[in-house]
Amino acid sequence: MDSDLAFALRGVSSTVGSFALRDISFSLPLGYVMGFIGANGAGKTTTIRCLLGMQQIQQGEIEVLGHPVPGPVAQRQDLGVVLDHTYLVGDWRLTEVERAVRPFYDRWDTDRYHQLLGAFGLSPRARVKDLSRGMAVKLMITLALSHQARLLVFDEPTSGLDPVARDELVGILGDFLLDEGHSVLFSTHITSDLERIGDYLTLIHGGRIICTGTKEEVLDSYRVVRGGPDDLADTPGVRLIGARRTAIGAQALVPAEDAGLLGARVVIEAPTLEELAVHLGAPATGHGPGAESPGDAEPRAARSISSRATK
Length: 311
What we know:
By secondary structure, this protein is an alpha/beta fold.
């Protein structure tokens, strides 16, 4: 076990119905934020369930904060989980929420709970069912921070939140990360949430890791190329990922090492995080030589970046 890692998944495979995670490997050092990106159905939630010990794995190993998963019951003391929905009884008032949750945590801090309720504008007398989407997320963050969690795991917490609420959440995470022993796994398909706080990125597609590494490493490993309708039609040796063609132009993502093979007939630019997610999460168009689906591109890309990111 590695005490310098917030978590690590190594060669994890798991099957849920007809869906399968295949050879999932990525890790996060302590004190950082990992953005976990993928389209709906890519495998983000299944991976998180495996990480939390809620989903059985067929092979591989998982560790969280220096302990194997499944680990000791005390491990839950250090984990704060924020889902895209509340798991609390709707008729509970927020004072009753505390009474129900407090016995499960040895380090529960009542003063901290009420301090955070006030800071987030949550009335202790409010009922769970009457909270807005944003307020419900803030309540779950309050619960996580009130038992002094060291690792926060967010599963699509900002889906449906307005920009103001999402900005507030980024500020909350910034305060949480002032402690160098705190870490965050942030699963989302809204890439703008990660522009300010993401340190590491992992992209998943079809149950496989496409790439993983620091944000800078991942972005620097690809280029977006744009040209006329036929400019990407004859590209021997160039791997076109998530290529899109219309009557007026063509665009694709390519590994950075392939970009130089395209010459001056196309525009080559560094990708934004959103462009990276869109192309890596898109099915192949099947048009022209070199066209690939993200799954086809995965083995080379994932190895080249993650070997540096998980050292």
